[in-house]
Write a structure and sequence with these properties.
This protein has twelve helices and twelve strands. It is α/β, with parallel strands linked by helices. It starts with a strand and ends in a 10-residue tail after the last helix.
């Protein structure tokens, strides 16, 4: 089987691909003629729209390196009978750890503190850098999949936090088992949470899920953390909430336009921290995602059932 790897993957995963796949074309070596006879491909952020899929008439499997498949035209891939797989749990731990890091960075104004020190300080513990503790506060997670559940566990075990869950697809009994409280309405989570975490996929029902109405419901002391997808949060409404200080602060790892432009107005806000879609960007997770995507191609090559099927 001929495989095109459209985006860079870790050295370890690339070695694994060379060892286990028949023919591998890597990102900077791809030529138009390779598209014509490739059977499989691996993508991270590469866009596979209808036009791109049509350029690969032999394609049998698209193996997504990561979770979100919104850069793939899934409807069209389905029509063409192309299998799409992903690596659902491979990066969850890394993203969950970033959620914790960003939460602490906002609540304790860590980035602002560092900038202040660089510019020179004339006193210790400046009042404008006063933050707040997480212990005993309420962590509200929108989405309790792989990432939301690991983050919830860390906040419960590490900070004795109460966890509220808004996820219509998770049962109340599952939440009870995990020691979490399920809420039926998003507004209940927004009103009660100190930290509001977004860990849902981008879909028609989640696009713009957090806009002005939702910011208006949040506590003045609330922190919003979005490591999922940019379009789930309305960026101009977030900007207004941060400028008006109707919430304490926010951090996002994903943006409407990526990579985020340095002129994005959100970056003017001192109560905002941006990271460049870095959630899964750890050595550990990159190896797991790369080898996980390759394993799906190996399964297809061997005529075995795929493990993580998207369509
Ligand atoms: P997951 O599929 O395990 O969990 C998603 C959860 O969202 C599920 O429990 C589902 O029931 C819930 N959900 C779906 N629609 C919902 C809705 N309308 N309201 C409330 N809940 C809803 O996915 P995951 O691994 O936890 O990842 C979550 C998202 O994080 C991904 O879809 C991806 O977009 C993003 N992500 C970002 C990075 C990064 O680098 N920043 C890395 C991995 C994933």
């Amino acid at each position: 089987m001929k495989t095109i790897i459209f985006d860079p993957i870790s050295d370890e995963a690339l070695d694994y691909a060379y060892k286990h796949l028949d023919e591998v074309i890597k990102w900077d070596d791809v030529k138009d003629e390779d598209l014509l006879d490739c059977d499989s491909c691996i993508i991270r952020v590469f866009k596979l729209d209808k036009g791109m899929i049509d350029k690969m008439p032999n394609l049998k499997i698209i193996a997504k390196h990561g979770v979100g498949t919104d850069s793939i035209d899934l409807d069209y891939a389905k029509i063409k009978g192309i299998r799409v797989t992903n690596t659902p749990a491979a990066n969850s731990n890394s993203v969950a750890e970033l959620i914790v890091g960003l939460t602490m960075a906002v609540s304790r104004k860590i980035v602002g503190s560092h900038k202040t020190v660089i510019n020179g300080v004339d006193r210790i513990a400046p009042p404008e850098l006063t933050g707040f503790e997480l212990t005993g506060k309420t962590f509200g997670t929108i989405g309790l999949g792989n990432i939301g559940s690991i983050a919830s566990k860390i906040f419960i075990n590490g900070f004795a936090m109460k966890v509220l869950v808004y996820d219509p697809y998770i049962s109340e009994s599952r939440c009870d088992e995990l020691g979490l409280t399920k809420v039926e309405k998003l507004e209940d989570l927004l009103k009660e949470s100190d930290i509001i975490n977004i860990s849902v996929p981008l879909t028609d029902s989640t696009e713009n899920m957090i806009s002005k109405n939702e910011f208006d419901l949040m506590k003045k002391t609330a922190i919003l953390i979005n490591t999922a997808r940019g379009k789930i949060v309305n960026e101009s409404d977030l900007y207004n909430a941060l400028k008006e200080k109707s919430i304490f602060g926010a951090s996002m790892d994903a943006f409407e336009v990526e990579p985020i432009n340095k002129n994005n107005p959100l970056l003017e806000c001192s109560n905002f921290i941006a990271t460049p879609h870095n959630g899964a960007n750890t050595v550990d997770s990159l190896i797991r995602m790369g080898t996980g995507a390759i394993d799906e191609i190996i399964r297809t090559k061997n005529g075995e059932e795929n493990l993580h099927i998207v369509i």
